[in-house]
Write a structure and sequence with these properties.
214 residues, alpha/beta, Glutaredoxin, 7 strands
C-alpha cells in the first residue's frame, strides 16, 4: 500500500472512531497528518456522513456543487443576514465554530489574519490593481449569542460572525456537516455554490491560503 492510500485509510479509521453526531476534538498534528489532503477530506466527510443521524424532514443538506440552502441567521447583536444572498458576488470562506471547541478557538487568530489580508486585497481590486482579489471570511457560531459576543470582543475577532443554536437542523448541517463536527469550514463561490469543505482546524494562515485557492 503506498503512502497516499495509507493516509486515506487512516483518515477513514479516525472518522469511524469519531462516532455519529459527535463533535471531534482534532489535535492539529493529527489533522495535518491524516486529513490535510483533498482525497483524505472527501473520505473523512463521506464516512462521517454515513454515520450521522438523518436530518429532519425538509432540511436540505448541501453537497459540493449545490447552491447553498437559503436561511436567515442573526449576528451576535441580533441583526439578520439572509444566506446566501448576503454573500453574493464574492467568494466566501465560512467557518463554523463554538466557544467550547478548543481547536476552533486556536485557529481563529489565523482566520482573522487571513481575513485582514483578503480585505486589503479587495481594496486593491477596487482600486483597479491587476491580480488583486479578496475572499470574504464569515464565522457561524453554533452557540449562545451572549457567549459569542463576549468572546469576539475579548479576542478582537472582527470578521462578520453569525450565530445559530446547535441542533439537527442548524446551519452546519445545512452547509454539508450533518455529523456536527467542529471546526468545519466551507468555500462558497461568488454565485453561492458550495465548492469545498474542510473538517478539522487549519494549521496557520498559509494553510488557509492554500486551501482557499480556486
Amino acid at each position: 500500500m503506498n503512502k497516499s492510500n495509507l493516509r486515506i485509510v487512516l483518515v477513514a479509521v479516525v472518522a469511524a472512531l469519531a462516532g455519529a453526531g459527535a463533535s471531534v476534538y482534532f489535535d492539529p498534528t493529527i489533522a495535518t497528518r491524516l486529513a490535510s489532503t483533498e482525497p483524505g477530506q472527501r473520505v473523512l466527510g463521506a464516512v462521517l456522513k454515513s454515520r450521522a443521524p438523518t436530518p429532519p424532514e425538509g432540511v436540505i443538506v448541501a453537497e459540493r456543487g449545490d447552491i447553498v440552502p437559503a436561511m436567515t441567521l442573526a449576528d451576535a447583536s441580533g441583526a439578520s443576514t439572509r444566506i446566501p444572498k448576503a454573500w453574493a458576488g464574492k467568494p466566501t470562506l465560512v467557518n463554523l465554530w463554538a466557544t467550547w471547541c478548543a481547536p476552533c478557538l486556536k485557529e481563529m487568530p489565523e482566520l482573522q489574519a487571513f481575513a485582514d489580508e483578503q480585505s486589503a486585497n479587495a481594496k486593491k481590486a477596487f482600486a483597479g490593481e491587476q491580480g488583486a482579489n479578496g475572499i470574504q471570511v464569515i464565522g457561524i457560531a453554533l452557540d449562545d449569542a451572549t457567549n459569542v459576543r463576549d468572546f469576539l470582543q475579548q479576542h478582537r475577532i472582527s470578521y462578520p460572525t453569525l450565530v445559530d443554536a446547535p441542533g439537527p437542523a442548524d446551519a452546519g448541517v445545512r452547509l454539508g456537516n450533518p455529523a456536527g463536527v467542529l471546526p468545519y469550514t466551507i468555500l462558497v463561490s461568488a454565485e453561492g455554490r458550495l465548492l469545498k469543505t474542510k473538517i478539522g482546524p487549519f494549521d496557520d494562515k498559509r494553510d488557509i491560503e492554500e486551501w482557499a485557492k480556486p
